[in-house]
Amino acid sequence: MKTLRNRSDVSQGRNPDRHKRKHSWRRGSLVEVTCSCVRVCFGEMSLKGRFLKPGDDSNYAEDRSDVEPTSGTSFIFNPNRNLSLQAQRQRLPVFSLRSHILYLLENYQTVVVVGETGSGKSTQIPQYLQEAGWGQDGMICITEPRRVACTTLAERVAEECDVILGREVGYAIRFDDRTSPGMTQIKYVTEGLLVREMMADPLLRQYSVIMVDEVHERTLFTDILLGLLKKVQRKRKDLRLIVSSATVDADQLFRFFNHNATKDKTKDTAAVVSVEGRNFPVDVFYLQEAAADYVRSSVDTVLKIHTKEGPGGVLVFLTGVEEVDKCVSALREESSRLGEKGGKMQVCPLHGSLHNSDQLQAFLSPPQGVRKVVVATNLAETSITLPGIVFGCIRKRTLPLSAKLHLLRWSELTCPLLCLTSWLLGLIICCVSTFHLHRQPVTS
Predict the structure, then answer these.
(1) Residue 177: beta bridge partners?
(2) Interatomic CA distance for residues 26 and 40, integer angstroms
(3) Which one, of 74, 119, 354, 113, lies nearest residue 244 by Cα?
(4) What domains appear along the chain, each with residue ranges and CATH number?
(5) What residue stretches are annotated with the Helicase ATP-binding domain (predicted)?
(6) What pLDDT band is residue 104 in, cutting at 50, 70 and 90?
């Protein structure tokens, strides 16, 4: 096996000069596809901001307020906090593939990592790269589709690395950059932010490895980013790309990033590695018939669980902020009506428009004897893990090519989405899942 650029020595101890690395900020030639894609994304298709008329009395808050440099920005649930950090990391399924992933990254430009939720892809792989020395010649960048995922993952990795968030490990999201130039080696960013960075530095020369996480969500920025990174790889042979997903078709990504036009397998530029997850059994129940008012049906289902089932949290998926607020208000009203005899409920909304401190309430453990109910959009579908969820009760956002804008439409739950939701619920504890979709024959 080829030596990993003498990185084995680095992985055994810290380099005292690791903070003195220099970045190359040379501008490369702008690829035509970069211009066109960025114009489409930030030109004609730019979404207008949300404005209020004079005199409007609204409870809208800014996306993210300024925080003190030493204050925490997110809450991380750690079920194994009684163990040492090293023991916690070794319990993750991805740990057994550490050497194999580093070997593939040394010999291939692109590595496709397919692993179920909870395998440790998002937190451990960046640390493996940093320990092997990949963070010395450039930063290790990890893209996430949501801001809350960037903040929570960055804080968790900073905790495991025993560093202050914003120094060796940081994140950059809209209106909040917690990184230190010349010091940060692991950087979590949103997909849209990385696309914006490409407008100033098309070849992304400040990064040595870019990891695109949660590819299975296939957002608009995900598709643009994958296309641009493929173009960048042709200009930068030293750039390494990791594509991580829970359910995506690995063969399709392999063919997309493999620049080998011959049948000689030794000339492949991409490789695939699969990581097993840690799942518990999930019992799935279907409604007998489709619900006319699925928000009210969700409230009724939660109340039945609360009054008839044992202890455990409840996670409800809804389609948008308005319906989440409607469901939360109804549940809180019903909880007040039930009183002490019916048992207490702590109802927490979870969506991207909430302030960070409000989002953290969904991660905190409820008081003794209180059932936590989290009402969320697809923000909680992947990227984050909610502790204590035992019960789970989808109009889906789509992007029709003809319309060229996002639309909220009803769509049936597909088998991959059902499986992904089951993986999420079975991540921590045995669960019971209730889908608001009448059961229909499924063909493979």
Answers:
(1) 172
(2) 25
(3) 113
(4) 31-41+83-275 (3.40.50.300), 282-435 (3.40.50.300)
(5) 102-266
(6) very high
